[in-house]
Q: What sequence folds into this?
C-alpha cells in the first residue's frame, strides 16, 4: 500500500543480518535505519564490510520515481533524490514481517526479504492529508506520529489548519493576545444536548515545536503547508483584538459552537497590517513554497450592512463592499509572491474574480476544481463528498457521532478525480487530499479511528490511482495488520470494536447514524 507501478517477483530470498552496511547519502542511511532497526545494526559504508543496501543516484529518473531491486546478494535503490529513495525504503519496509511495524521496530537480529524488482512513480505530486487543530488541539507527539504514518503511505503534504473561530494555535510574539486569549474557549458544544460542556479547551504550539515539526516532516519527505484562515473564521482573533472587526465588541468570546459566523475582519489598513504581521511570522517558521490563506465561508453581511462599507470598497477599488474579499485575496497573493511564496486557498477565493497564480483547493465539490483547472489554476481535489474524513465511514448504527455525510473506504479508493476531464484540465490537477476536521474528534485516538483505514485508501488513490474493492481488500487487510502492530486505533473493515462505537457523553457520540 500503495500498489507500485510494476512488481516483478523473483526466486529466492535475501537474509539480512547485523551489521547491515548501507552505501548512500546520510539521509538514506537514516531511512534504512528507521525501517530495519533496532534489532538490526545499520551502519554507513566505510572501510569495513561491503554494502548490502546501496543507493544509486540516477538523475534520469523523474521526481519521486524509484527502482528497487532485492536480490539474494543485497538491495539496490535507484532514485533521483533522497525523497524518492525514502519512498523506496517504505516499499522495502513493507516486505518485512508484520511484527517489524511494532512501536519497538524490528526486534530480531536477522530478517528475510523476498527477491523482487519494483519500478514505481506517483500519479500525483500533491498527496495530502489535512488536520484541523483549531477545533480540538492535538498534542505534538501525535502530530509526529501522524507524520510517521503519512511516510509509510507515501503521502507528502501535511496541511496544518492552525486557526479557526474556535481556537488560535499559532504564536505571534508581537500579538500575544492571539494565544493568551484566542487559544482557548470556555466550553465545547455537545451534540446530544446542544449545550456547552463547561470544560475549558485550548492550547497552542510554540515556535520551537512547530520548527521541530517542519524538520521532522522534511526528514520523511513531507512538507508542512500551514493555514491561517482569513478573512472569515476569525472569531478567536477578534476575541483578542475586537478592534479588527466591524463591530468592536470587547466581550466577544472564543465560541464553543460550530458553524459559520458573520464576524469577519474589517479590511481597513490596521487589519491588513495585522494579517501581514501574522503571515510574516508564519513564513519564518514554515519554509513551504505553498501557504494556505483559507478564504472559505466568509460572509459579506457585516461589510454590506455597515455604512462605512461603501467607502472602504471605494478605497480598495472594488465595486462594492460585497467584493472586499476578492481585493483582500489578491492583495495576499501579491504580498506572498513578493516573498517567494504561492497562495493556496479554498475554492471560494475565485468567487469574486480570478486570482492569478493561486492554487485552488476544491472542497465544496469536484466541479469547483474542474472549473478552476479550466481557468488555468493548479488544483488539489479535496471534495467533501468523498475526501472529508469527518464524515461517517459506514451507514450502520454503531458509528460514533460525526458532523454528517457518508464516505466509505471503498468510495475513497475508487473515486477518480480526473474522470471526464480533457487533457489540459487534467494536467492542472496536481493532487488529492483528505481532510480531518475535528469538531467531533476531541482526542488523537478518535482522529486515528476516523482516519484509518480511509487514509490508506486515499494514499492508494493518490499514488497509484483508483482501485476496485476486490483488488484492494487483501492488500488493505495486510496494511491494517501493520498499523495495528504499531498501535494505531484503526477501524476494522467489518465495523467498529465495542469501545469504538457510538454512545453519549463527553465525546459527543450519538446513535443512530444521521446522514
A:
Amino acid at each position: 500500500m500503495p500498489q507500485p507501478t510494476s512488481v516483478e517477483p523473483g526466486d529466492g530470498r535475501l537474509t539480512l543480518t547485523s551489521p547491515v552496511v548501507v552505501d548512500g547519502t546520510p539521509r538514506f542511511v537514516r531511512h534504512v535505519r528507521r525501517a530495519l532497526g533496532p534489532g538490526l545494526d545499520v551502519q554507513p559504508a566505510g572501510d569495513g564490510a561491503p554494502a548490502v543496501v546501496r543507493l544509486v543516484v540516477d538523475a534520469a529518473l523523474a521526481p519521486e520515481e524509484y527502482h528497487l531491486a532485492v536480490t539474494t546478494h543485497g538491495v539496490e535503490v535507484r532514485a533521483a533524490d533522497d525523497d524518492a529513495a525514502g519512498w523506496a525504503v517504505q516499499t522495502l519496509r513493507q516486505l518485512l514481517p508484520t511484527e517489524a511495524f511494532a512501536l519497538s521496530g524490528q526486534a530480531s537480529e536477522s530478517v528475510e526479504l523476498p527477491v523482487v524488482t519494483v519500478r514505481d512513480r506517483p500519479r500525483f505530486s500533491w498527496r495530502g492529508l489535512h488536520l484541523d487543530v483549531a477545533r480540538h488541539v492535538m498534542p505534538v507527539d501525535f502530530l509526529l506520529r501522524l507524520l510517521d504514518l503519512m511516510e509509510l503511505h507515501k503521502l507528502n503534504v501535511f496541511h496544518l489548519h492552525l486557526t479557526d473561530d474556535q481556537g488560535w494555535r499559532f504564536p505571534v510574539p508581537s500579538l500575544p493576545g492571539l494565544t493568551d486569549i484566542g487559544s482557548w474557549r470556555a466550553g465545547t458544544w455537545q451534540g446530544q444536548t446542544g449545550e456547552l460542556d463547561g470544560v475549558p479547551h485550548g492550547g497552542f504550539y510554540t515556535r520551537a515545536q512547530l520548527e521541530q515539526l517542519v524538520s521532522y516532516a522534511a526528514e520523511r519527505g513531507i512538507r508542512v503547508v500551514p493555514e491561517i484562515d482569513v478573512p472569515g473564521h476569525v472569531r478567536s482573533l477578534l476575541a483578542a483584538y475586537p478592534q479588527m472587526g466591524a463591530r468592536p465588541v470587547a466581550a466577544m468570546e472564543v465560541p464553543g459552537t460550530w458553524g459559520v459566523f458573520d464576524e469577519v475582519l474589517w479590511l481597513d489598513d490596521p487589519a491588513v497590517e495585522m494579517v501581514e504581521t501574522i503571515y510574516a511570522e508564519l513564513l519564518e517558521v514554515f519554509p513551504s513554497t505553498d501557504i494556505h490563506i483559507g478564504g472559505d465561508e466568509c460572509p459579506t453581511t457585516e461589510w454590506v450592512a455597515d455604512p462605512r462599507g461603501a467607502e472602504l470598497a471605494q478605497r480598495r477599488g472594488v465595486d462594492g463592499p460585497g467584493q472586499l474579499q476578492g481585493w483582500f485575496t489578491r492583495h495576499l497573493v501579491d504580498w506572498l509572491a513578493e516573498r517567494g511564496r504561492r497562495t493556496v486557498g479554498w475554492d471560494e477565493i475565485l468567487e469574486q474574480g480570478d486570482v492569478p497564480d493561486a492554487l485552488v483547493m476544491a472542497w465544496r465539490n469536484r466541479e469547483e476544481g474542474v472549473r478552476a483547472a479550466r481557468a488555468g489554476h493548479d488544483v488539489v481535489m479535496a471534495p467533501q463528498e468523498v475526501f472529508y474524513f469527518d464524515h461517517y465511514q459506514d451507514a450502520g448504527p454503531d458509528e460514533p457521532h460525526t458532523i454528517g455525510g457518508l464516505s466509505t473506504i471503498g468510495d475513497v479508493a475508487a473515486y477518480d478525480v480526473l474522470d471526464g476531464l480533457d487533457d489540459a484540465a487534467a494536467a492542472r490537477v496536481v493532487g488529492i487530499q483528505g481532510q480531518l476536521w475535528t469538531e467531533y474528534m476531541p482526542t488523537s485516538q478518535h482522529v486515528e479511528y476516523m482516519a484509518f483505514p480511509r487514509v490508506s485508501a486515499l494514499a492508494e488513490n493518490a499514488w497509484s490511482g483508483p482501485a476496485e474493492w476486490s483488488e484492494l481488500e487483501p492488500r488493505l487487510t495486510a496494511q491494517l495488520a501493520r498499523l495495528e502492530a504499531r498501535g494505531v486505533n484503526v477501524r476494522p473493515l467489518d465495523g467498529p470494536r465495542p469501545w469504538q462505537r457510538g454512545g453519549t457523553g463527553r465525546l459527543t457520540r450519538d446513535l443512530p447514524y444521521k446522514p
Remarks:
- The longest strand covers residues 6-17.
